[in-house]
Amino acid sequence: MKYKITAPTSITTEVQLPASKSISNRVLVLHALSYSAYDMENLSACDDTQVMLRALDSDGTHFDIKAAGTAMRFLTAFLSKIVGEWTITGTERMKQRPIKILVEALNTLGARIEYLEEAGYPPLKIFGSALQGGEISLNGGVSSQYISALLMVAPMMEKGLKLHLEGDIISKPYINLTLQLMKQFGVTSLWEGQTIEIAPQTYTPIPFKVESDWSAASYWYEAALFAPTAEIELLGLFKDSLQGDAHLVELFAELGVDTLFTPQGVKLIKGEKRCTQLDYNFVNEPDMAQTFVVACLYSNTPFRFTGLQSLRIKETDRIAALQTEVRKLGYVLYDSEDSILEWTGERCTPEASPVIDTYEDHRMAMAFAPIALTEAGSTTIAEPSVVSKSYPTYWEDLKQAGFAIEVLRETTNQDK
Fold first, then answer.
1. How far apart are CA 93 and CA 98, in angstroms?
2. For a FRET experiment, which of 27, 101, 297, 356 has its CA 20 to 30 Å from that of 110?
3. What pLDDT score does 415 carry?
4. Pair 185, 269 in one domain
5. Do 99 and 26 share a structural domain?
6. Of these residues, 47, 213, 245, 287, which one is catalytic?
7. In the annotation, is 245 catalytic?
């Protein structure tokens, strides 16, 4: 299935953004580890969170987490300290996403985890038991989800955890988010330089309400940038957010979208463009890369984005996917060192009727949809249902804002 999206001439809308997936998935683990009887408010309705919720509520021993990478990492660590025997698997793409670093770290700390198919990749067999804990070193350049998974179970280890992060640490805000949420559940930690130390402790049950998702907000900032006129209010965002992606406020201000904080959230205001080129290290906000690639291309802003090393192991190889899809639209991106993307202004001949492939990646669909607001007039997105991974109501929210969405029927042999 494909969606052809046609944009209104202006946007006036109020959007109840989805709850933060990053916060929801962490709070679910902390809620379980604290044996909390409190209800959790405003949990994300996205696929990843619902998979986590079903797994944590399940009495079964086999878990299929589909395409939910967060769930794979967090549940691997969680199940390793729950007495029993468990198996965890996912989609074919999930079976290609590496998990060796996390498994080796857990096994060093007293877990027993085995690979059921290819070494270093899911599916896994987990023999849950008490974790001894201790002192380990980990490459700080790996996915922060590996680190967060270890940190959340660290207080339950007999010796606690002393984690040395080697080299450059990527996605620091996500690690800090984990530690700050743990603190709200009563667990203290010490992060000095490259070392995080967590002593054996007990989590305290608390009531919790999840903030809206700044990652989801980014697509509305894009829309505000492209629309001739825009009045967009996004509900449920906090000024002093723990989410690293809240930094998009400063970046979009450079491109020409200003932010007014209100008691309900934020209002987006079209401002003056402040930069002629955007150079930025996305090591702390890798999920924003697709949004800003598209935003810069269609605001004719050359860029050089670094710190993108984790994009190669996301839902798809996002660096390659971006290069392929923007070429369809007439733009040439160059990559280097497996962590840098840049656009110098180089163009190529666009396809006559481009269709944006989404590669089972929700952020490909949502980052490219606002192109309809540009002189292109419309955009066509393949497999649009992928948005359910993090923002299930995205297309409905676009319709509410005045976008027209046409379902394009697939041509079959019978039609020919």
1. 10
2. 27
3. 46
4. no
5. yes
6. 287
7. no
